[in-house]
Amino acid sequence: MQRRSRGINTGLILLLSQIFHVGINNIPPVTLATLALNIWFFLNPQKPLYSSCLSVEKCYQQKDWQRLLLSPLHHADDWHLYFNMASMLWKGINLERRLGSRWFAYVITAFSVLTGVVYLLLQFAVAEFMDEPD
Fold first, then answer.
1. DSSP state, 130?
2. Are 4 and 81 in contact (CB under 8 A)?
3. Percent of the chain with pLDDT over 70
4. Residue 74 contacts by C-beta under 8 Å, 6 or more apart in sequence?
5. Cβ atoms within 10 A of the Cβ of 51, count?
6. How do the domains of the chain map onto residue ranges?
7. pLDDT (average), residues 69-98
């Protein structure tokens, strides 16, 4: 699975428009860093998209645990990035102001990894239940 290229990344342009509409000075630091990190990984992926997707076979059996860290940061295309980060922008502003930057950073980090772990556990459980090792 490779990222679709359309020439102009309309989703990325809309995301940058949203960020500048809100104002960079009005976005708390952890939310801004999370947005920047996700945009950077979108523009400069560390691995091909297929090599960062979660699967029990790749993570557990082949010990490719790096996927747990990369999968929350990789987006299939510019619209995937836009919808996730536009949501993150609005939720991040409210939650970071409410929780504080340190606690919000902890929540983002913990739940990014835990979401992948739960996904892998569910994938493993369904495979066992269905008697389908693939």
1. T
2. no
3. 93
4. 41, 42, 45, 47, 49, 52, 53
5. 15
6. 10-130
7. 93
